[in-house]
Amino acid sequence: MLSKLIVKFAFFLDGLDSYQKSKKFLFNLLQNPDYPYKRYLDILMIFLILTSVGILIYGVRNPLPEWMDIYDIYVVSIFFLTEYLLRFWVYNDFHKAIIKEYNQSEFLLKRFSLWVPIKTVLKGKLEYITSLTAIIDLLAILPAYRPLRILRIFVLFRVFKLLRYTKSIKQFVEVLADKKFELFTLLLLLLFIVMTAGIALYVFEDKQNENIGTLFDAFYWALVTISSVGYGDISPVTQQGRAVSMLIILSGIAMIAFVTSVIVSAFSEKLDELKENRVVDNINKQDDFIIICGYGQMTKVFLEQEQELGSAYIIIEKDKERVDMATKDGYNAIHEDASKHEVFNRFNIDYANITLLCLTNSDIENIYITLNAKSVSKNIRVIARATDASMEKKFKLAGVDHVLIPNKVTNMMLLISINQPVVYSGIHSILMGRDVAHIDELRVSERSRLIGKEVREINFKLYKILLIGIERGSHSEFIFNPKADRVIEEGDTLVMMGQKISVEYFKESSS
């Protein structure tokens, strides 16, 4: 009976839209680095950490005012406790585990066991509790318990919480973590040298050096010497002890050189990745941006009109030499394979309008990139290059919104330039963005003043522009030179030609 009630409640929670949205919002706020509102939480937590540490420092020699105590106990600590509990809650879903086990039981016609999802969820919760970040979060809460004053020292763990909210520090730790094997090996070597030198000095200097009374003193001297600090409070007095000092000094120089080379090599290996992450982060701050796959001649020609884009852009190229070339040319480029699923997950797909340009030289690669992008989000607008007109149908089946066939356009322009040179000159001037004319489009949004108006009611002559045609969004049809009684609808796209300043003025007036 209890199991049935729990299963019903699990299905109730799964169907409760407000519960799902709340948990998703909190998960993104706490865990998703690409969520736009997460940075506000990070700033708040950094402020709370720094102020609480400041209060600890101030309270060492000064009596704390009452408001500082209240702030430290009831504001900072409650925030940290709430954060800890929320992270514990969103780490996994109990009701989803129950539903999964129940559906499997129904499918396999076996008895439903409530213990299986409970064990799964508890295992996940235990993984979170025992993780290093969760332990730091818990220790950061303890200073709020004032009866034990010794717990105040745990406020220092709040400094470690900065690792979660400060990206630069986190990246530094990740770089060192990638070299943990090398650093761990050097640490073992350091301990071996310190222990060997300490024991040797203790044997040689026993009863002859008044500053070395215990083995710990010898270890202390060895560590201070090998680190090149050299306080001078302990110095060997025997010839054998001085020989050990010479060897340990040389070992210390070698150790410092090794550690430095390991860290420098780690950062040099990660430098490109860190730069690319910064480029991606800057792009994700935009509401509209363009992803260009492939850095070839078409991309170069396209980016020459960079000022006309009106949107941020980023180039994805799997050839490292081409990436370096694009970076040298002053463009934003990253070294990735756009046909891989995880690449598009780096971008702010859910909160931005994205246009994808597939401009590689391979039709197969462009199709793979399109399929990959559409599998991540159907809302990504894809424009792809095809080498042949016979590939257009395949591109459309893959989900490409617009297919570019450069050879077809080139042949058509070549034919016009031969048979109609004046027409070619005019088209060329328009396409090159000269002052002769400017072709642009206007998508009619739900707030546009044009909705419900007939073409004759819009005084295009007043704005000194020419209406070429209308693409009806609901039917995906282009109406050339529409009739005067044609009614403008929401979702329509107006294609216009005129001076750039006239087109921009018309857009502002109609919005």
How do the helices and strands line up, and which of them pair or pack?
Elements: H1 2-15, H2 17-31, H3 38-58, H4 66-90, H5 94-108, H6 115-129, H7 132-141, H8 157-160, H9 162-165, H10 167-178, H11 180-205, H12 215-226, H13 239-284, E1 288-293, H14 297-303, H15 306-309, E2 312-317, H16 320-328, E3 333-335, H17 341-344, E4 353-358, H18 363-376, E5 381-385, H19 392-398, E6 402-404, H20 406-419, H21 421-431, E7 438-443, E8 465-472, E9 477-480, E10 493-498, H22 500-510
Parallel strand pairs: 1-2, 1-4, 2-3, 4-5, 5-6
Antiparallel strand pairs: 7-10, 8-9, 8-10
Helix pairs in contact: 1-5, 2-4, 3-4, 4-7, 5-6, 10-13, 11-12, 11-13, 20-21
Account of the 3D structure:
The chain has 511 residues and is an alpha/beta fold. The chain folds into four domains: 2-165, no CATH class; 180-269, Helix Hairpins (Orthogonal Bundle), CATH 1.10.287; 287-404, NAD(P)-binding Rossmann-like Domain (Rossmann fold, 3-Layer(aba) Sandwich), CATH 3.40.50; 437-510, Alpha-Beta Plaits, CATH 3.30.70.1450. It has 22 helices and ten strands. Helix 11 packs across helix 12. The longest helix has 46 residues, at 239-284. It is extended and about 110 Å long.
Cα separation of the termini: 60 Å
Percent of residues in helices: 55-70%
- Biggest β-sheet description: 6 strands, parallel
Specify the number of helices. Answer: 22
